[in-house]
Specification:
Elements: E1 2-7, E2 10-12, E3 18-26, E4 34-39, E5 46-51, E6 57-59, E7 67-72, E8 77-82, E9 91-98, E10 102-104, E11 108-112
Parallel strand pairs: 2-11
Antiparallel strand pairs: 1-3, 3-8, 4-5, 4-9, 5-6, 7-8, 9-10, 9-11
């Protein structure tokens, strides 16, 4: 009933920037919290950032000051602007929608390497 599709991943050199998008469809409520998570090879999935409909944001310490999460409720889309990328940011990035249960996108690969 809810579908999330991430896009914008790819290969970028250290210090570069990338913008991820997550388009939601189905039974979507713009008041619900959305966020981004990531999972690096051999590691657990971790929270990157969340955002409420009111614009309140929360960031992992590792990305605070470098990443910016935003949302366009009219388009049911959440974005993640990633700046000053580091090799340790390499991971599959997943979009998350919170409802009566959690909904996840399929993920988009971000690789930071020279």
């Amino acid at each position: 009933q809810v579908q999330l599709v991430e896009s914008g991943g790819g290969l970028v050199q250290p210090g570069g920037s990338l913008r991820l998008s997550c388009a939601a469809s189905g039974r979507i409520f713009s008041t619900n919290v959305m966020g981004w998570y990531r999972q690096a090879p051999g590691k657990q999935r971790e929270l990157v950032a969340t955002i409420t409909s009111g614009g309140n944001t929360n960031y992992a310490d590792s990305v605070r000051g470098r990443f910016i999460i935003s949302r366009d409720n009219a388009k049911n889309t959440v974005y993640l602007q990633m700046n000053s990328l580091k090799p340790e940011d390499t991971a599959v990035y997943y979009c998350k929608y919170t409802s009566t249960r959690y909904y996840w996108g399929q993920g988009t690969q971000v690789t930071v390497s020279s």
